[in-house]
TrEMBL record:
PROSITE patterns (UniProt xref): ASP_GLU_RACEMASE_1 (PS00923)
HAMAP family found in the cross-reference section: Glu_racemase
Gene Ontology terms, MF aspect: glutamate racemase activity; identical protein binding
Biological pathway: Cell wall biogenesis; peptidoglycan biosynthesis
Binding positions for substrate per the UniProt entry: D7, S8, Y39, G40, N71, T72, T183, H184
Name by which UniProt lists this protein: Glutamate racemase
Family of this protein: Belongs to the aspartate/glutamate racemases family.
Length: 267
């Protein structure tokens, strides 16, 4: 049986990539809801409907666990998914807590980048209320970055101008950590790092999500310790062109080029 990974588009491939490194004996299914990408600009009701539709299709494909590799989808639909299906379902949220611990030790602030919808959700607001009693976390939406990623747009000049417009007026030296709170954003880690002081640490939720997946699989005696690894890509449109794009994005991360991404790497 496979482990299912789900996102609206290419973003969750950054989480899948981490899982493939971590589980050498597992088979993976990656499903992109290309009919409705991006989620971050939709209403909460629309996203919940799309996620439930996608999950229904994924569950049919012999999966033993499902990773919702999307912060927005997790914040809106994870509880409903867990109440509907009896397989392990792992979600994501912006890695603000570990980032805050690091920044506090450095006497610095935290900057969270995420989609507009994620930042508006009660789940995220509750997280901040729970952990950020000193108001050290600043949150900025980078909604357009999702579309840049979906179009494989890694033009350095375009992206640099975009990022600079988003952090205009901020003293970047006051931050100890930057949270990449959308699974599309790690594709731009290298470009973002160039904009910040070298001491700033970049954190995303991929490693924590994969460790949680491992814990749950071991707890239920569902972890494969032998077998050949495989990865299958599919989407809600079934478009072969998009499947090829997903494979390119995955192999791009496999080569480790996400630190200094060039558009030509994905052509």
């Amino acid at each position: 049986m496979k482990i299912g990974f789900f996102d609206s588009g290419l973003g969750g491939i950054s989480v899948l990539h981490e899982a493939v490194k971590h589980f050498p004996n597992e088979s993976f299914l990656y499903y992109a809801d290309t009919l409705h990408v991006p989620y971050g600009s939709k209403t909460k009701e629309e996203v919940k409907s799309y996620v439930l539709q996608a999950a229904e299709e994924i569950i049919k494909q012999d999966v033993k666990a499902l990773v919702v590799a999307c912060n927005t989808a997790t914040s809106i639909a994870i509880e409903t998914l867990r109440a509907t299906y009896n397989i392990p379902i792992i979600g994501m949220e912006p890695a603000a807590k570990p980032a805050l611990e690091i920044s506090r030790s450095l006497n610095k602030r935290v900057l969270v980048f995420a989609t507009s919808l994620t930042l508006k959700q009660a789940k995220y607001k509750h997280l901040l209320e729970t952990i950020d009693d000193q108001s050290l976390i600043d949150s900025i939406p980078l909604q357009e970055l999702v579309q840049y990623c979906e179009h494989l747009n890694f033009d350095q000049d375009t992206l640099k101008a975009y990022f600079q417009s988003k952090v205009q007026g901020l003293d970047l030296h006051q931050y100890g950590t930057v949270v990449l709170g959308c699974t599309h954003f790690p594709f731009y880690r290298g470009l973002l790092r160039d904009m910040f002081p070298p001491t700033v640490q970049f954190i995303d939720g991929s490693i924590g999500t994969v460790k949680r997946l491992e814990y749950v699989l071991k707890e239920r005696n569902m972890l494969n310790t032998a077998g050949e690894q495989s990865v299958t890509f599919t989407s809600s449109t079934g478009a072969k062109e998009y499947e090829q794009k997903m494979k390119k994005a995955f192999h791009f991360l496999e080569k480790g080029k996400h630190e200094k991404v060039q558009k030509t790497d994905l052509v």
